[in-house]
Amino acid sequence: MSPNFALHEKTLLSNEIDEKSRRIFPSSNADGQLEVLELWQGGDTRLLRNPSELTGYKETANGSSQLYIIRQKRTWAPLNISRQFLERFLSVHNVFELFWKVAFAFSKKSCENEFDFPGFINRQTRSEEQRKAYYYDYDELSYVVRRVELNGRSEIPGQSPWSIRQTGLYHKLQSRRGNNDNDDDGEKSTYLAIAPSDSFLETLVQYQKLAIEERQRPSPWHIHWLLMTDSLRGWATYISWLESELQQLTEPILLAEAGLDETQFRSDGFQVTFEDCQKLKQLDGYASDLKIILGIMAQNCIGVKERCLRYCRQTCYSSKNRCICSDYLDEFDRYVKEIKLRINQASILHRRIQSTMQLLTSFLDYEEANALNILAQESSKDSKKMSILTLRNTKDAIAVKILTIIGLVYLPTTIVLNFFSTVFVKSADGTQDMQVSPDVWILAAVAIPLTGMTIVLWWACLRFTTPLLREVELRQSKGAIASKLLDRLCRRRKRGEKNDLEMGRGIISLRQGKSSFVPIVATSDSCTPTLAGS
Fold first, then answer.
1. In this structure, are 198 and 266 located in the same domain?
2. 397 occurs within a structural domain
3. How far apart are CA 12 and CA 396, in angstroms?
4. Boundary residue ending a domain (166, 193, 218)
5. Are 152 and 291 part of one and the same domain?
6. Residues 363, 460: one domain?
């Protein structure tokens, strides 16, 4: 069934391979290079620069285990190998198609998406030979592990000094089983490491030298143990750094004094800015990604542990002494416990970050409410001042009105006195005595009716002018509404000027058993429709 599985997987992944290959592989026509190291043989690293060298090397490998290495210049850069070269490797070593999910994690990108990384992938196949008394088990597994390390770049505000990098590993284990269980000549491992760290390669070289000196062949799970050890070493320090960054943002908020008249929360000038909110959001994203990364890492470690346990049951069951696989199983079990501890720490840290964000949000809401309260108080004071000014203006208006009435009363009398001032009051000849003329009654006879007429005219203007203006405004508004309705009605009627029986326009009349169509025509001077011919 395995070939059928492979065919189905290749069909499903073909479109995705074509789509993502432009970002995974370099745009140049160069094949790149593939490094190969014969494990536990003492050989140096060999560079394969084209697919033909790969085929020739496999024929001369003499059944030894090899570690193939694909370099990557930067974390978000394409692989240092061409697509044709990689496909040739997959074909020569008969690698399962699911390995492409590991390759998809390495490409040219501008940002990281944690949901693009696969989990633990494993498949076991069996190849039986009828002419021999033994068969081979092919156990294939692949996964991507993440590690965190200092990037060494200068500290830039808003950027983390840590970088999360990844390493992909493929392992094909060929185990021979048959009548002679103690014979391990048929056991062989083929590894492919994508973008391994320098520390991993340095440690591997040291263990290889030690194995050659002691003439011991390490377990095929030794590479997995080295990779897990290398990937786990920096996460504790990274979580500690996240906690320290969170404390720097949390402590000033916890010690802040709310409700001050100034914008400062504390006497030392502390202020919550938008940058603080951005930093908290960044920490929240770091913690969320950390939980995803550690969850996948735990799945990978558990998968490797299960495969190692199954390998031990198949190969070491006849041994009475403690086998070397038990040591690796203990190490993998310890790594699983450590990863679960880091996951628990990441979850607690994530909850603390969210709690701090909620506290900061509540704090800002409180300060906003306090500022609105202060603004309302100032508005109330302004309203009181405006009411006082309005009262004063009202009193002044009343005084002006009184003065106007007094002026209306005295204005006619003043006019009459200006005309007849020399007639009503005279001085005697040669003396300074003033004499009132006997015709002074004319002043009252003219001033009183004139004053009455002025008051009546003023009252009439106030009485009839204001209602008249209101009535004119009301008529104008009603006229505007009516004109709008009339315009809409005319537009609808004009749209129906097309007389078509299929459109439902016109009237069907029955005259003497014959039907005729009478179109409806709108007159040009009004919107009232009429029958054509009427």
1. no
2. no
3. 90
4. 218
5. no
6. no
Q: What is the dihedral of CA 517, 523, 526, 530, to 10 degrees?
A: -30
Q: Which helix (H) or strand (E) holds 154?
A: none
The pair of three-digit structure tokens given for residue 288, joined into one six-digit string = 């969320």
Residue 513 within any structural domain of the chain: yes
5's tokens: 């599985």
Q: Is residue 346 part of a domain?
A: yes
Q: Are residues 512 and 475 in the same domain?
A: no
Buried b (16+ CB within 10 A) or exposed e, 401-410: eeeeeeeeee
Give residue 516's domain range. Answer: 497-534
Handedness of CA 295, 299, 301, 302 (dihedral sign): positive
Residuewise pLDDT in 10s, the chain (534 residues)? 445 666 667 777 888 888 888 888 887 767 778 888 888 666 677 888 888 888 778 767 666 788 999 988 887 788 889 888 999 999 888 898 899 999 998 888 878 788 888 989 998 876 655 445 455 578 899 999 999 998 887 677 667 889 999 999 999 998 765 544 444 556 788 999 999 999 999 998 888 888 878 777 778 899 999 999 999 999 999 999 999 999 988 887 777 766 655 444 444 455 667 778 888 999 999 999 999 999 999 999 999 999 999 888 877 765 556 678 888 999 999 999 999 999 999 999 999 999 988 888 888 888 788 888 888 888 888 988 998 998 888 888 888 877 877 777 777 777 777 766 666 666 666 566 666 677 677 777 777 887 788 778 777 776 776 666 666 667 766 666 667 666 766 666 655 554 444 444 444 444 444 444 444 444 444 444 444 444
Q: Is 283 contained in some domain?
A: yes
Q: Pick from 181, 377, 358, 174: which is nearest to 261 by CA?
A: 377
Cα(263)–Cα(367) distance, integer angstroms: 9
Q: How far is 509 from 513, CA to CA, in rounded Å? A: 10
**pTM across the whole model:** 0.68
Q: Indicate the number of domains in the chain.
A: 4
